[in-house]
Design goal:
Layout lengths: L1 H8 L3 H31 L7 H26 L5 H9 L5 H25 L16 H23 L9 H21 L5 H11 L7 H21 L19
Length: about 250
Amino acid sequence: MALTSRLQHSVTANALRSYLAEFISTFLYVFAAVGASMSSRKMMPDGTSESSNLVGVAIANAFALTVAVFVAANRSGGHVNPAVTFGMAVGGHISIPMTILYWISQMLGSVMACLLLRITTVGQHVPTHAIAPQMTGFGASMLEGVMTFTLVYTVYAAADTKRGPFGAIGPLAVGLIAGANILASGPFTGGSMNPAYSFGSALAGGSFKNQAVYWVGPLIGAAIAGLIYDNVVFPDVRNPPDSLTGIAEGGV
């Protein structure tokens, strides 16, 4: 009975609007993030060795993620990331059926953005996330996991209605931590923290090498962040998990 109720809850009009919001926001974010990387490489063919390239990509990611989270916050919670959705599911803020449909929406948004960039730039190479030659897959997964932990923990804090109304400050905090993490890890893993982003660029770029790094690390980091925030650090301010997406209705 509970399963049937959750399935029905996942296909209501509000739920469908949430999936569309996640699709649009993920498209917006990935289009800007991947486009910025492509532009920097177009202007500087050897841009991988330029520190200004890293700074530019980090700023573009921070700005794009801030806007993407802000525009979807009041409808879907502004996850824009399968890892964030997984962290919310582990925390009991979103049901499993809705988690799966959120993932599908986010993956489609990322793939569409990357394919559009590839088509409109006349086949220019779509950059994919890759780990540094001296790093192991385990080390790269750990790094991505730690960064995603900080990202999801920030999302939890920004969306916690008991902390007061954050308005636009919440999405800005999420964007800033993402940009900071890219500055810290860009040369090592690319600073993904987002499985949909990595998958979309890999599909359009034609290379799935080390793709597991960008799923295993972020999902584990997100799960730990959700568990720690809700059960250890702020066990008395947990948001009720029985709304559409838990914290989503309150917005970020």
